[in-house]
Amino acid sequence: MATLAFIITIDTEGDNLWENHRHITTENVHYLPRFQALCDKYRFKPVYLTNYEMAMDDVFVEFARAAIARGNAEVGMHLHAWNGPPAHDLSGDDGRHKPYLIEYPAAVMREKILFMTQLLEDTFQTKMLSHRAGRWAFDERYAAMLLELGYQVDCSVTPRVDWRRSPGAPAGAGGSNYRHFPERAYFIDPDNIARPGASRLLEVPMTTRDKHAPWVNAVSQMYERLRGKRRGPSVQWLRPAGGNAAQMCRVAAQSLDSGSDYVEFMLHSSEFMPGGSPTFRDEAAIEGLYRDLEQLFDWLQDRVTGMTLAQYYQRCLGQSGASA
After folding, report:
1. Res 21: pLDDT
2. CA nearest 15: which of 265, 279, 285, 268?
3. Which residues is 186 bridged to in the sheet?
4. Closest listed residue to residue 206, CA positions, set 131, 139, 263
5. How far apart are CA 104 and CA 229, in angstroms?
6. What is the pLDDT of residue 193?
7. What is the pLDDT at residue 318?
8. Among 49, 137, 217, 248, which residue has the fewest nearby CB atoms (within 10 Å)?
9. Each residue of 19-30: pLDDT tens digit?
């Protein structure tokens, strides 16, 4: 069997949250069995990083429990601060601004993380081990709270990506800057999540690659600075965007060729539903998505082994020589 890992992460959340600010629906749950069946075909094991509204959807709960029972999936925690209980109005209109959890007071952060952890563990009768922050916003306080609750893996880091231009609370400074974070998995330093350390929390960064050669990025950024702009280099993700199967294969190949022992894929659950996202607005777009997924999975199947985040953690723990 291949020793390189393929990790599929699905941000499992309400329908088209890019545009739906007030009334959140969860119809996309009905489109997840098709994706799970595709993963089963290739023996890949998705991680459904689940937020509040999906944890409250009986159809999703039944679906996810069955996948867990078959050993074909993992459920982890995904927290949208603006609608995850307990309620705390940070901006005066959190539904519209979608503040980052790290913008809330530490006590509120802790309450929200604890609530979601207990809800998911009670609902799925399994320990929550894996986590991704809502809107990719992560910091040292957040990491410490996850460690306290026994989480093993975080996958919030997006190397090369600077989210500071993506606003949350109007008075805030935007999201996290991951431009210079490691691109391979590492046990974090609790005092500085951008560097390896001695904690038991494994960071598994998203698979990203620079779109252009370094010199092209350098020239482009110099031009942007002269224009008074602050913009990071163009980045390609291991993530469907419509008609980008070849690009995804290239991103995966570049990552593996660079020495990474895993590649990490992501998509939102709502992107499997026609009209559930701005990218895949109709049936034709969804069929195109599945053609891209088949092409990517075909390319990967002889190169990698499907693992959940929890399984990958155990492998990394074994390689580090530490005990669980």
Report:
1. 79
2. 268
3. 203
4. 263
5. 28
6. 98
7. 87
8. 217
9. 987 899 999 999
CA 265 to chain centroid: 8
Tokens for 225? 């600075």
Q: Average pLDDT, whole number, for the chain?
A: 93
What's the pLDDT at 304? 98
Q: What is the value of pTM for the model shown?
A: 0.93
Q: Under a CB-based contact definition with an 8 Å cutoff, are residues 8 and 308 in contact? A: no
Both tokens assigned to 275: 């009209």
